[in-house]
Amino acid sequence: MRYMLMRKADPATEAGELPGQGVLEAMADYNNRMLEAGVFVTGDGLRPSREGCRIERRDGEVRVTHGPFAETRELLAGYSVLEADSLEAAIEWARQWPAEDGDVTLELRRYFGLEDFEPGPGLDKHRAMARLPSELNVHLCFPGNCREAMTCYAEVTGGRLEALITYGETPAARDTPPERHDRIIHASLNVRGRRLMGADMAGDCYQPPQGAQVHLDYATLDRAETVFNRLAEGGEVTMPFGATFWAQGFGMLTDRFGVPWMIGCQTGQCPMSEEESQP
Asked: Would you say the pTM of this structure is higher than 0.70?
């Protein structure tokens, strides 16, 4: 079941006071614990209401009222979306809200699920969207240097290397030559809830990747170019990083481990797709 954990606004948040490093660090640790537990879906802080507005429709007329709004206790300063088995489980996570944030008011609300609605054509459209998988991950094969490659990717991307399991640590050890027990049977790099996985292939089973690339997209040009240059070290650049008609910056390369990458900055939607989607 999905819940929204809402952090209500207060005079400090409405004044635009930003949290200090202690609060930021505590919130990051809190979100990471929930992420590792499979509870955290997403979360964001909200700017003061003076930078927002309300849109109301009355009798067919739309009215826009710009902030700030006086009723601070009814406003939100931020929210987290949680995936929990029950309200009680969500409450337990809410109880762990970082003490560094001081006195706060939190509110939990459960999302509606498709099962709550009457069958019909409208619901069918939503069910079609629900067919989408909960995750889309990438799995890479390596000839024996999986540990080195995944450690490098963790450093470059800032993701968390949540698994580096060897053949010798699994039941597969009894069917694996002793000299291969230190090879990686499963590696998982968690990057904002998406996973780049990998493994060392046995014997002659390894084949270099062909016809596919790992794509990373960044909000800032500097960060995208830095990542591109780091991955290009010892590798081969197939398209130098630079501005394109579809992105502020974009480049392609094959790193020193034989893995192809596409690195972009605000790649966004293909302009042709936008044209085709217009009525």
From this structure: no
Q: Which residues pair with 244 in a beta bridge?
A: none
Q: At what angle do helices 146-157 and 221-232 cross, to 10 degrees?
A: 160
CB neighbours of residue 241 within 10 Å:
22
| Tens digits of residue pLDDT in 210-258 | 899 999 999 899 999 999 999 999 999 999 999 999 999 999 999 999 9
Of the candidates 95, 13, 8, the residue with the CA atom closest to the CA atom of residue 50: 13
State how far the Cα of 156 lies from the Cα of 152, in Å rounded to an integer. Answer: 6
Q: Is the dihedral of CA 238, 248, 276, 123 positive or negative?
A: positive
CA pair distance 102, 254, nearest whole angstrom: 48
pLDDT confidence bin for 275, thresholds 50/70/90: very low
Q: Are 267 and 261 in contact (CB under 8 A)?
A: no
Answer for the pair 27, 79: CB distance below 8 angstroms, yes or no.
no
Tens digit of pLDDT for each residue in 253-271?
999 999 999 999 987 655 5
Helix ranges, 52-202 (H): 87-95, 121-130, 146-157
Q: Which residues of 21-44 are buried (b: 16+ CB within 10 A; e: fewer)?
A: eeeeebbeebbeebbeeebbbebe
How far is the C-alpha of 151 from the C-alpha of 153, rounded, in Å? 5
CB 181 within 8 A of CB 166: yes
Distances (CA, A) of 29 to 24, 105, 117, 203: 9, 20, 37, 41
